[in-house]
Hints:
Number of domains of chain A: 2
CATH class of the largest domain in chain A: Alpha Beta
Number of domains of chain B: 1
Largest sheet of chain B: 7 strands, mixed
Strand order of the largest sheet of chain B: 3-2-1-4-5-7-6
Order of helices and strands of chain B: HEHEHEEHEHHEHHE
Number of helices of chain A: 10
Helix content of chain A: 25-40%
CATH superfamily of chain B: Vaccinia Virus protein VP39
Distance between the termini of chain A: 24 Å
Largest sheet of chain A: 8 strands, mixed
CATH topology of chain B: Rossmann fold
CATH architecture of the largest domain in chain A: 3-Layer(aba) Sandwich
Number of strands of chain B: 7
Number of strands of chain A: 12
Shape of chain A: globular
Number of helices of chain B: 8
Distance between the termini of chain B: 35 Å
CATH topology of the largest domain in chain A: Rossmann fold
CATH superfamily of the largest domain in chain A: Alpha/Beta hydrolase fold, catalytic domain
Shape of chain B: globular
Strand content of chain A: 15-25%
Oligomer: heterodimer
Order of helices and strands of chain A: EEEEEEEEHEHEHHHHHHEHEH
Radius of gyration of chain B: 17 Å
Amino acid sequence: MPSALPADSVGVVKPAAFVHPDDFTLQCDRVLHGFELVYETYGTLNSDRNNAVLICHALSGDHHAAGFHSVDDAKPGWWDVCIGPGKAIDTNRFYVVSCNNLGGCSGSTGPRTINKDTGQQFGPLFPTVTVNDWVESQALLANHLKIEKFAAIVGGSLGGMQAMQWAISHPERVHAAVLIACAAKLSAQNIAFNEVARHAITSDPDFRNGYYAHENTNPDRGLGLARMVGHITYLSPDGMGRKFGREIKSGDIASATNVEFQVESYLHYQGRAFSRHFDANTYLLMTRALDYFDPARDFDDSLDRALAQAQCKFLVLSFPSDWRFSTHRSTEIVDALVRARKNVASAIIQSDHGHDSFLLPIDRYTEAFGIWMNQVADEVGACTSAQIPDAR
Amino acid sequence: MKLAPAPVHRYPMRADLQIIADRVNPGARVLDLGCGEGDLLAHLQNDKQVNGYGLDVDPSNIATCFAKGVNVLEQDLDKGIANFQSDSFDMVVMTETLQSVQSPHLLVHEMLRIAEECVVTFPNFGHWRCRLHLLFKGKMPVAEHLPHSWYDTPNIHLCTFADFEGLCLQEGFRIIERFVVDARYQNGLLINRFPNVFGTLAFYRLGREKRR
Lengths: 392, 212
């Protein structure tokens, strides 16, 4: 428990809820009779309403990107490393909006929501959502907040995909897009990992075809297993080796028990922790959205033509040790942007943390990202720290 | 074509970059190999509405380009530039980088695949100071324009202007223009008469070989 909150923290934050009362037609043609998005904001929206930054979360993320929900919280939001006063996304200059996506399990309308038609949780009947649906629902949230155009839309991994989709679907509403450890579509290998994770969940006897909540159970083992597989792919071989080594706890094989290597207990812990808070149906739905994402599909499979729609400038960041969303996949995006004659900058950040790198305080990463975002703030005319009336 | 965002600040430009900037048409598409701190591109974006991209690998250069709003891409020239389409740029520029790449001749071929014209600048190893240095001291020349010792130099392919023109002849690079200057980026009678002896830095504007 932190006795005092760090000076570069956005402090104690409170989630808010945006209620969209009207019907919302999803890409799969099914209709949600209204929905709710839970979101947080950090910093101050300026009078021109042009300093807003939208944070898009990845597979297991949520709206709580920065700060603490109470002074007793052990950990800040998932991207506190990059969001706060003086950080890469500087809340002295930007107004940051972060929401839990549709289909999520942290408060936004999703499988855990009560379906008004049946009086029961949606569970497995929650419709398929896509990255497009997320973007459209986020656009409604932006309307609600009276944000015409975002200074930047930012995301890592699946979050980067949303930023990319925003740039294609709503070019006039995005000044800059930041795609970190991202890909224009998943590789077959990536889909395969997602399928193993899904299969782990659906083959758990407690999954009950997705009606586990109705039957008062939860596929803890399947969800935990899915997370374990995921975690292996989020780390790099070298990083894993350095972090865990292969020392045997009990000292010799003769007295070995079930969990002997440090990496085993790490994965078990991650699996257990995840299954306690995350919803299995949400996991299935989010991984499918990830698999289906392919903005080129609507443009004769030409990513160049898809990205030609965009008007914003792009920053593409990647990490060579990330084999789940490799640097090569980011290069594909950069090359397509160059062919589409878009403004783009890129950097390839050395780190041995694999896909997880985008969440971690890596000096070159946070510095370069911050410098680029600062230039964005200058371009939109966001105030400088010195102009803030009550700056500390 | 939408223009790159104009950098907020103006930057004074190195004299050699000005010489190149003078040779770029307004509105051109420019690729700058080894763009350094992005001064040329920032200037071209600002004053000539050029849609440009720079390639570099140095983290601090890249950060500086970010701060200027320059389109810098982290890419290692030694791994090739095959990702750029043929004829997709109006001009490819490479300033004082030729001597430090692994395969200068292959890179120039690639530059002339991507654009019809390219500008290459490099220091002259045939400068009289270099010649005297080697002749009298018997040691690898260290000069104002070649400040590194032999063991730590990034310049692995130093050449004289005569060497380079030999390469152009051999590889079919058409020399459209040669502009030779001293260390202060000035030229004069002596340099123009004996460029390979008195010239410090050369600008070569190259084109593709004329089809016979």
